[in-house]
Amino acid sequence: MKIITRGEAMRIHRQHPASRLFPFCTGKYR
Fold first, then answer.
1. Rg of the chain over CA atoms, in angstroms?
2. Contact at 8 Å (CB) between 12 and 25?
3. Angstrom distances, CA of residue 16 to CA of 12, 25
4. Quick check: pTM over 0.90?
5. What's the rounded Cα separation, in Å, for the pair 26 and 3?
């Protein structure tokens, strides 16, 4: 499990619209 910052989460969100595949990312910053 990789912990990321909000900034990185936003970047991943924009680069990967299918961020639903990463629940450990969206779940923590949603």
1. 8
2. yes
3. 6, 12
4. no
5. 11
Instruction: Tell me the C-alpha to C-alpha distance, in Å, between residue 17 and each of 13, 22, 30.
Output: 6, 11, 15
Q: What is the DSSP track for 1-30? A: -----HHHHHHHHHH-TTGGG-HHHHTTT-
Q: Tokens representing 21? A: 């595949």
What's the pLDDT tens digit per position in 1-30? 577 778 887 787 677 665 555 665 555 555
Burial of 13 (0-12, 13-18, 19+ CB in 10 A): middle
Tokens of 24: 């450990």
